[in-house]
Amino acid sequence: MRWGTLCGVAAGALWGLVFVVPLLLPDYPAPLLAFGRYLAFGLIALPLAWWDRTALAQLRRADWLQALRLAAIGSITFYLLLTSAIQLAGVPLPTLIASGALPVAIAVASNLRAGRAALPWGQLFPSLGLILGGIALVNHHELQALQHSSASQLQDYGLGIGLALVAMLCWTWYPIRNADWLRAHPGVSSRTWATAQGLVTLPMALVGFAISWLWLQQDGLGFTTPLGPRPWEFVCGMFAAGLVGSWLGALCWNAACQHLPTTMSGQLIVCETLSALAYGFALRQQFPPTETVAGIALLVAGVLWALHSRGTQSPQAAPAAPAVRTPQHTATHPPH
User: Fold this and answer.
1) Half-sphere exposure for 109 (CA within 13 Å, toward CB)
2) Measured between alpha carbons, how far is 294 from 162 in angstroms, rounded to an integer?
3) Alpha helix locations (H) across 151-261?
4) Residues 6+ positions from 232 with CB-CB distance below 8 Å
């Protein structure tokens, strides 16, 4: 439980970094940022795949197809929507929608799917209520700031919010399906599964990047080179996002999924929200206002409540989490 929690917190801190990349490269369109990040992720996965080649060779066709679905929806589509939303509406609002509301969405969806193994709703509601209260406080401050915006700015904010909502749906689906697969294949290491997703991402990202650049050229909005006006900053930003925000983040998240039930690991995504907000305000060079700090405090309290209620649940009442076994002792499934 403690190890799973630490891995979930680490994944959130790493993922939070990718929320500020669109603001650091505002002159780059969202498609180039999204496909560039996952192109870098796929290239990083190539040497890692050679290191993990024995375990990867044991994956079946169905496993690779699942990795492809997870990468297409939970990685590329999600980040394409998120980068567009952030460039339209800034960091706080899309972060709170696409990431901050995820603990509630994932916990509710997971508990509904769990059937008899579900956590009692009475244990789940207090933590979810605190998280929702924190989201409402932060959103209230950000919405107040829109009162003096122009019509075009309000239109951009509205479109950004819509894109963030669709991104939230993508990432509600991803961690549940990812956790299902990992628990069905306990002999697969989190590193192997993160590398597998990187490999299937590479061809999709390569094609998407090429199409995006050609489309921008057709519209007269393209760059003179595929790397744009600031090639060094773009390459460094994409490889940092690919290594830290994709491979390392996925590795930590997969480890958390193997040690925690989805209702609990889903609430740890709040750490991604908190990290993204912290990085965003640091980039603005301002301290968050009182309402935002109060909202953040409620988010943290909600996660701590959830972890405490899970930790004090009696063995008879607790749903049985699948055992995490090492590859040497697993004979029922090939590595994932």
Assistant:
1) 22
2) 26
3) 151-184, 190-218, 231-240, 249-259
4) none
Q: How far from 294 is each of 111, 129, 282, CA to CA, in Å? A: 28, 14, 18
What single letter denotes the amino acid at residue 30? A
Placement of tokens 């405090």 in the chain: 297
Query: Residue 149 and residue 134: Cα distance in Å, rounded?
Result: 24
Residue type at 49 in one-letter notation: A
At residue 19, the 3 state secondary structure works out as helix
250: nearest Cα among 2, 20, 7, 5: 7
Q: 55: number of CA atoms within 13 Å, CB side?
A: 22
What is the pTM (predicted TM-score) of this model? 0.74
DSSP string, 253-267: HHHHHHHS-HHHHHH
Reported residue count of the chain is 336
Q: How many helices (H) and strands (E) does the chain have?
A: 16, 0
End-to-end, the C-alpha distance of the chain in Å comes to 22
3-state secondary structure of 35: helix
- pLDDT by residue for the chain (336 residues), tens only, comes to 788 888 888 988 898 888 788 888 888 888 888 899 999 999 999 999 999 999 999 999 999 999 999 999 988 999 889 888 888 887 777 777 777 677 777 777 777 776 655 566 777 778 778 877 887 787 776 667 666 667 777 788 888 889 988 998 998 898 889 888 988 998 888 889 989 999 999 999 999 999 988 887 776 666 777 888 888 999 999 998 888 888 888 889 888 888 877 667 767 777 887 888 788 888 878 787 788 788 878 877 876 776 666 554 433 333 333 333 333 333 333 333
Assess contact for 138 and 296: CB atoms under 8 A: yes
Residue 328 main-chain phi, psi, to 5 deg: -65, -30
One-character DSSP codes across 75-132: IIIHHHHHHHHHHHH-SHHHHIIIIITHHHHHHHHHHHHHGGGPPPHHHHHHHHHHHH
**CB within 8 A of 251, min separation 6: which ones?**
190, 191, 194
Beta-carbon count within 10 A of 201 CB: 29
